[in-house]
Amino acid sequence: MNDLEILIAGVVALMGVGLYGLLFTRNLIKVVVALQILVKGVLVAMTAAGEASGQLNLSQTLIMTVIVADTIVAVVGLAFAVQVKRLFGTLDLQALSNLRG
Amino acid sequence: MEDMTAFTWMITLPLLASPLIYLLGRLVKQDGPIVSHWAAVIALAITWVPFVIAAKELNDSGPQTYELGMITLRLDDFGLLMAALSLGLGTLVALYSGPYMSAESGQEKYYTLLVIMIAVMMGLGCANDLFNLWVWFEGMAISSFLLVAFYHEQKPSLEAGVKYLVQSAVGSALVLLGISLVLGQTGTLVLDDIRAAAADSDILLAAGALFIIGFGVKAALVPMHTWLPDAHSQAPSGISAMLSGVVIEAGLVAMLRALGSLAGVSDSWGELLMAFGALNMLAGNLMALRQTQVKRLLAYSSLSHMGYMLLGLGVAIYAKESAGAEGGLFHMLNHGMMKGLAFLAAGALLYTLHVAAGDHSPLTISDLSGAAQRYPLTALGLSIAVLGLGGLPPLAGFMSKWQIFVAGFDTRETWIEALVVFAALNSVLSLGYYAPLVNRVYRLEPSEIVRQGKPMPVLMTVPTAVLALAIVAVGIWPDLLRWITEPAGKALLAAFGL
Amino acid sequence: MTDWLIGLTIGLPWLGALAVWLVGDKREREQHTLAVIFAVAAGLAALALIPSYGDAVELRFEVGGFFGDFTFVPDGLGVYLAAIANVIGALAVIFSVDYMDGENALGRYYAMILLFIGAMSGLALTGSILLLFIFWEITALCSYALISFYNDDPKAVEGGIKALIVTQLGGVGMLIGALLVRAYLGDYQISTFLSRYGELPENTLTIMAFGFLAAAAAKSAQVPFHTWLPGAMEAPSPVSALIHAATMVNAGVYLLARFYPAFEEVSGWTTAVTIVGLVSAFLAALMALVSDDLKRVLAYSTISQLGYMVYAVGVGSVFASQFHLFSHSIFKALLFLSAGAVIHGIGGERDMKKMGGLGRQMPFTRNVFIVGALALMGIPILNGFWSKELILEHGLEDGPAWAYAGMLIGAGITALYSFRMVWLVFFDVPRGEGHAHQAGQMMRIATGILAFGALTTWLLVGSFGEMLEESLPFHGLHVHAGTTLIEDIITAQATLIALGVVALGLLTWWLRGSLGWLANGLRFVGTAASHDFGFEWLNRQIVNITKSSAESLRATQTGHLNWNVLGIVGGLVVVLAILALGA
Fold first, then answer.
1. Would you place residue B420 in the very low, low, confident or very high pLDDT band (cuts 50, 70, 90)?
2. Per the CB < 8 Å rule, is C568 touching B167?
3. Partners for B (CB, 8 Å, 3+ pairs)?
4. Which domain holds residue A39?
């Protein structure tokens, strides 16, 4: 395996874990964590893309920005989680399914 | 760094004003909320100056560009249409929100986020590379998360906010993966350069799919739409108007920009968009048919209208003719007005019937019984909006749907003609829920809740009246908006290299 | 001058609608007055427009782009239909002054009626297919609003939405046609289409022809789209008279007549039109025979009479169909308005089984109603006689024999149900409770004028024919001069046959006591007729299927976040698969 293939394997693994978490976890905190893992997988993909195309500078800038934006999303997500715990008394997603139909 | 141009001022002015709005709201002791409300309105009003200048410059000397380090912003007619939609509806919503939000705490945050969201969407229209596009897109997403869950003490709003956040974030991650694929394959992120460099490759094909799905979450393509009915119905009504009228359209604009760079990779983009269009129309209409809550009904109807836009745009990309794109973008503007008006009018009734009495329960269709007796102007506004959405002439919605249909038939291909007929039948189906809504409003016997309703604030009537007049005017004289839709359609096709 | 008159014919009612609405429901007197003034003025403008038929003047607004030019052309077909809409509209408004006195939401009522009148005139006068479609839709909207006028009554609400959806479904056929014309000829003008329809591929023209037939059938309440019209009887009676008898329902027949030159050679089209007309005329007459609701009888009778007009187009006699349209709009408006006077007079009861013997208490209404009923039966010398005979004569000469036989029997049934209706309402023993009060002054004026019309309008047959002949270049009509025409009808064999059948129908009523065996033998027909021959059932099934599929689709919005994410992942997988397979 060369470097690129290792990176791609990493992408697949991380995104797989992230999506698995999003599809099967019922705990809101874990969902936020799964989102983070998903995005981290994408960041690895971006590194690989920079590597493959010889545009590491560009991909670095990109990655830095994504990390900042993604952190904001995580913060907002966690803030929502705190509020959910306060209002619903649980972090179970089952409780968050009142809007249907 | 170059000198700022009109269109960059158009984007930066509200961004610069936003912290000011927050601080004013915070620091002014007694009338903080009122001050931040008017500060937001004034900031947006001033933004019209650079907007008009930018539109004129665009008209006189073609697309405008502005370079800042690695980033290039570029205003073409397509971007101008996005800006017009965002700023136009945004200004009215800011005005409207004054009375609507008057009893809430934390209004300074509301206005700050609203102004940021408007600016960011104008920026999104001017993005010239994928990275930039993503940044604006994410900025729009984050500001809208917070606005959707603005009533964070209300369980349903919070639930809607959580779902919106998670689904948007997944979509945005898929977009980023798509961007990585494009970068890895072509070594550039500038849209035009990608199009020049893009070869037929499976990786870029996958990137296209990721863009459709990733941006499609925000544009509420079925089956990625599931956040929409929750978020659009639970947000404060002004925000519902913005979400349905501008934000999902911004998702579509972003998708088209990104896909445009991959135009040469596949011939199927147009067909895919049409397929999603058909799915959206049918699912949206059927889901709306049995709703009992007004705002949820309107939210589902947004799905079906996204379908019409997709149909028009898909036809344009497929047939390489700008007629469909003009129709689709015309419908985008009209939908912004009609759905904006529908949400604002329904929200005004929600306000006078529920919110003003401190009640956060949803507005149901039966609440509307006889609302016209007490609130004739708002009721008329709501009726014009939903009849327009249902595609009845002489209202704006009919005209843009018609234009899309004309574009479809101009291809002279049987399956596209069949799709157009399907779309027309869907319009008939949609009357099945729009018409009873109007009927309900004009009941002779007002419901108990209407009898006890609070008076309608003037500031909420003005935006609804403006929008209602615009819808009728465009319906009677459909070429009224052609000055913007025609070049925008051409610019969109240009972005696809056609 | 002509362009001004066109503008006034369409614009005056619309201005009136705005004025009545602005005055507000608190000032009812002013609303009545304003509505009458505007409606009468528009009626006069429409009458004044008639002599300008055939003028080359056209009103053109260049909208351009995808919408073509908005044009108005005063040809014979257009000006006379506009005149019917405006004159009967004015009479319906005059009638309403008494009928709607003291009702709530008068502003909405008059505004919608006036909006309708203007839209109907526009529909008749426009020269652009797109604009035709637009006016078509506006009339449907007004019809919806007025059927559901008493919208606290669920039956009215249901009737309204049914009418709207059914006519809109048919309207899709017209939409297809308009789009095809635009796609192939690059223009929406009717004149362009009629002169260049040969440039369309054959199957395209076929699709268009049948699309227009579907639209016409839905608007003119022809089988199988007719189910909405009986439901529309929940509207106030002047509305039924104006919209659902005299004007809007004629739009379908008008459409067929207008486009006849282009479609007549499409294979199977004229046969299809004939069959639609025949089936509607025949079945609806049977339904009218077994219905007990006075307004529903009139509604079925309208379907049946419209069937005659459609049939006339099918056998190639555009002139006869338009002439019957003219007569029918007058005598049916008369019947509906005087029925309205009866219903108003006895406090809203519509069941004929609860009427009886009303002739004594309301002699004026009885007299005008009988005039209308005689015209409907086709008794000489009322206007219905001449036009119906003309249709049957052409049917015998140019149409298939089986269709003619069906139409002839239909004429007999028409006589039968008309007589039954008059008998049950005005004669027979009184079965209702309480006293019936006389029709008001305004009601008498309106019905009186119409009764006079039913007695005399046939005298115009010559000039009417001349007008159509001269101003419709694509139709190539050759109509005889008035006196010849009348002589023709009188001496035609078909007339004698038809009169014989009508007499037979009346005789059946006379001998109904001793014809019990026949009635028993035909009971199953009556049962089928009173169940609307299953069309109503079919209608409900379609609605139920739509509703239940909508309801079951709601299960997909589970509210679970995991499920929602699955939607995204699933969407991605599907799109990737499509791209992998297709590209």
1. very high
2. yes
3. A, C
4. 3-92
